[in-house]
Design the sequence.
């Protein structure tokens, strides 16, 4: 076995340790061609590149492996298509086996982790693609439009949802490392992030607790705290800070949200909303978007469209009447905005929803 390829003058065989001194002498006295030096240099550089690639691949594989492990644990606990509320407070597991049409949904404030399958989530005018590598940070005051796009009996959509305790969130936010520094900019983050090993590990341990019910009361809150701590280290941490402030009834943004939900059939006026929140117009707009990822106008419009859809589904009214009852003055404008949000004109969407039910 030779370190250099055959044919290179001065190539030295790899020797046993007892001959190490002799081999060193031979290296010193044997002329080495420039081409051999170049070869060794290139081999060394290639080795370093390959080592970096392997290390990066191992790291990526570690995350992929954790996602697969979490998927196996969810599938083991919920073997039939269903929504399964577990013994751990706030933890729900999901298994879905078929795509769905767009449907409006209001989550509690929490963390949804998808580990298999695909779905689309629409928030305002932005649609996000969610797959086995993503998580979704939800807020109790922010309605979403969701659609399952990839799920089957063979490869079901598997996910977990953990309702976050705002008391724990605020307690951790009081820690020194999470207090905003002077001049530190707060970026409006999207509700969608990519799972890493630091977040997947506590999620896996949380599911492991289901095998030890007696340990749930003690360990579940500890793991819950770790999940929150990890989330705050993501870009979505800024959004979680804003959501925590919404839980305070005295918050100006919380007051604006509550007023909109109670008065969405009324004409929208941003100056009126700013008065309710006791904030300037630009300040309200900034804080509102940070907390909800929507502008106040987008939020108002989405409440109207979801209210109209509910009237058509539950009360059986037609599209025109539903539009006027939620505050629209133009049926054609209502139809355009409804289709933009739900993907189909009103009555066709309602028919599809009833067939799916």
Sequence:
């Amino acid at each position: 076995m030779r370190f250099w390829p055959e044919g290179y003058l001065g190539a030295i065989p790899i020797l046993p340790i007892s001959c190490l001194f002799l081999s060193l002498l031979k290296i010193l006295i044997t002329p080495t061609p420039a081409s051999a030096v170049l070869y060794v240099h290139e081999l060394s550089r290639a080795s370093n590149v390959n080592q970096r690639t392997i290390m990066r691949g191992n790291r990526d594989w570690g995350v992929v492996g954790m996602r697969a492990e979490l998927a196996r644990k969810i599938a083991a606990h919920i073997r039939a298509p269903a929504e399964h509320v577990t013994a751990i407070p706030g933890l729900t597991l999901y298994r879905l086996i078929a795509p769905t049409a767009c449907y409006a949904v209001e989550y509690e404030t929490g963390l949804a982790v998808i580990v298999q399958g695909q779905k689309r989530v629409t928030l305002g005018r932005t649609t996000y693609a969610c797959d086995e590598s993503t998580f979704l940070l939800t807020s109790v005051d922010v309605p979403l439009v969701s659609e399952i796009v990839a799920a089957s009996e063979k490869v079901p959509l598997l996910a977990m949802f953990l309702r976050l305790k705002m008391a724990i969130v605020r307690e951790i936010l009081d820690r020194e490392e999470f207090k905003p520094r002077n001049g530190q900019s707060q970026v409006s983050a999207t509700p969608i992030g990519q799972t890493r090993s630091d977040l997947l590990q506590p999620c896996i341990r949380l599911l492991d607790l289901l095998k030890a019910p007696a340990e749930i009361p003690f360990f579940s809150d500890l793991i819950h705290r770790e999940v929150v701590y990890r989330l705050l280290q993501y870009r979505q941490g800024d959004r979680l800070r804003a959501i925590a402030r919404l839980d305070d009834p005295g918050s100006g943004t919380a007051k604006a949200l509550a007023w909109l939900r109670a008065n969405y059939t009324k004409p929208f006026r941003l100056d009126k909303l700013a008065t309710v929140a006791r904030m300037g117009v630009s300040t309200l707009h900034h804080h509102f978007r940070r907390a909800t990822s929507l502008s106040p106008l987008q939020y108002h419009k989405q409440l109207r469209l979801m209210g109209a859809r509910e009237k058509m589904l539950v009360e059986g009214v037609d599209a025109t009447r539903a539009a006027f009852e939620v505050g629209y003055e133009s049926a054609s404008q209502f139809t355009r905005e409804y289709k933009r949000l739900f993907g189909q004109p009103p009555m066709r969407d309602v028919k599809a929803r009833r067939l799916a039910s």
